[in-house]
User: Which sequence fits this backbone?
């Protein structure tokens, strides 16, 4: 199966700075890479995703980049705000999977200090 | 449109007791999933369902059973709870699966925090 590694496990930034979270995956057949944000006491919520036919995707202050050759993808948050504080999970899905199963990284606790 | 809901939100069990966690979705999704979340372990798939009346094992199925009698509901059962099953349980659903392009986004419920003493 797929193995997704996520780094760092914790990240602290000053409000207004940028934050970058990186993930690597093992199966070159993976073709879908979502990012989830989990606030305290809540379920994960999809914030952005990217498919293997594109290298970068942006949505306001959030962007995701994908390097298929190196098998890694990254989440970039610019102009961070205290409300960005949460746990972020990356995930990968293998092309052709009969389930559409997602393999998750272990999460990054992001703290944005005012 | 409530999305994905889970009941109960919290539960404390004694070792050996049984219980059922209920997941409901009102988005007419075909696929449903049960995950457990433990500190430092991310989300691990317990069981899943690709449609009404069908279920299958995920990554960590031992000690759990599931049923999908209605399309909108997915039940997770613990027949004889053990302390190792202390965790936060999340249900998720998606419209379809792979090869269906934009329909594979998974939507998560708010979770059930279970403690087994």
Assistant:
């Amino acid at each position: 199966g797929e193995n997704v590694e996520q780094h760092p496990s914790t990240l602290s930034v000053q409000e207004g700075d940028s934050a970058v979270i990186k993930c690597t995956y093992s199966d070159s057949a993976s073709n879908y890479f979502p990012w989830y944000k989990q606030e305290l006491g809540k379920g994960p919520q999809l914030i952005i995703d990217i498919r293997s036919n594109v290298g970068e995707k942006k949505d306001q202050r959030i962007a995701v980049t994908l390097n298929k050759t190196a098998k890694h993808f990254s989440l970039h948050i610019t102009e961070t705000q205290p409300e960005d504080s949460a746990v972020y999970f990356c995930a990968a899905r293998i092309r052709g999977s009969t389930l559409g199963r997602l393999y998750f990284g272990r999460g990054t606790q992001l703290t944005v200090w005012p | 449109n409530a999305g994905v809901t889970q009941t109960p939100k919290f539960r404390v069990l004694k070792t050996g007791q049984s219980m059922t966690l209920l997941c409901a979705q009102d988005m007419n999704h075909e696929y449903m999933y049960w995950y457990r979340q433990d500190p430092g372990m991310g989300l691990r798939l317990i069981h899943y369902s690709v449609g009404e009346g069908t279920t299958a094992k995920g990554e960590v199925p031992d000690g759990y059973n599931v049923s999908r009698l209605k399309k909108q509901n997915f039940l997770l059962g613990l027949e004889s709870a053990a302390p190792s099953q202390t965790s936060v349980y999340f249900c998720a659903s998606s419209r379809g699966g792979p090869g269906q392009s934009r329909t594979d986004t998974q939507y998560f419920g708010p979770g059930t925090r279970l403690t087994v003493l």
Remarks:
- Chain A has no helices and eleven strands.
- Chain A touches chain B at residues 6, 9, 32, 34, 36, 41-46, 49, 89, 93, 95-102, 104-107 (CB under 8 Å).
